[in-house]
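@channel sequence for tomorrow's demo:
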Amino acid sequence: MTGQVPALLVKLGRFPQLHGGLGVVRTLGRMGVPAYAMVEDRFTPAALSRHLAGRFVRPTTGREEESELVAALLQIGREIGRPAVAVAEGDEAAVLLAENADRLAEWFVLPPVPPALPRRVASKEGLHRICQEHGIPTPRTCAPRDRAELVAVSRAWGYPVVLKDREPFTKLDDSAMGHTTIVQDEGELLDRCGTAEFPSVIVQEYIPLDIAEEWFTHLYVGAGGTPRLVFTGHKLRSWPPGTGLTTRARARPNPTLAALAAELCRTIGYCGIADLDWRFDRRDGRYKLVDFNPRFGQQFRLFRTARGLDVVRAMYLDLTGQHVPDGSQIHGRGFIVGNLDAVSATVSAWRERRLPAALPRRNLERAWLSRDDPVPAVAEAVRFSGTVARRLTKPVRTMVAGPLLPQKGAVP
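structure tokens (generated this afternoon):
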């Protein structure tokens, strides 16, 4: 192991229960790569993986000064003691690494992506402009100048509409959407945006799932925008339902979609790992680009070639000067985030008043459970139980605490 170039999972913000980082640690650790990770605390699932060579407890909010974040990364590099391949978890980490590649080059090996490009594609407004420039189909999108325009556009298009944070980093603010949100009426729209006169959101046309399909492409793109691996998959369930994190998916061949994603990356000169979300609109028979994430997707381990290559392994091999074997994806594989998928299936069944559809249970890649690395699944089960308990008891805790809080106008 010691002869291998190490790798570091770079994370900004507090998301201890995201499973993608654990997937990175496992996929690199199984290659014999010394895999390190930035973690929120010592007991996050990724921090407890047997495949982890070392953890750096560096809790961040993502709202720190850029110089502070870069300094923290450089200190981690010095502690590792030799240059490491940096793997971004989250758009914000990808933007930070790209825009500070020159300063980080002493300790980190990074894809030669144009420094400004990750921020542009991760921006919902910037991505829409790219799609317009290059003729890529996308849902109708508007970046409202103020609250009045947001309301006017939503009325003109008709509810429901989709709200998203406009730029990377803004979703880490307390007042942000945090994730893609479907709003059903004007009351909910105003409630979601609070009192801000200039809400930092974009509004997007909603394409309901009864006339659409959810797809995604995962790519590793080498220098000059040349795709080395392109995978396509079909999203079956998510949390929250219809808008959120993939909880159940299948690897399915889609040459049309693969060609669209590869050509876009080639045209704009993107380099590195990318996760693109698409919605197939049956009304006009077109795949419409919804998101371009300049980093690995949380479900990246759904995809691999016959030689065991996924996008993280491909990037590692390429950046360390090793051969990247050719190969097409293995089809029919499934991916499941067991705890969240159970919640998604239950909520969807309740809303639709019918039992959830039966889905294949064979050849599944599980986000948490692993025979050779069982402890992270136990840690996640404990955290998830705590999260559920807090959500269920919140009304009671609020009611009990209410009388103890100072009333308006009262003298403390």
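heads up for whoever presents: Residues 403-412 have pLDDT under 50 and may be disordered.
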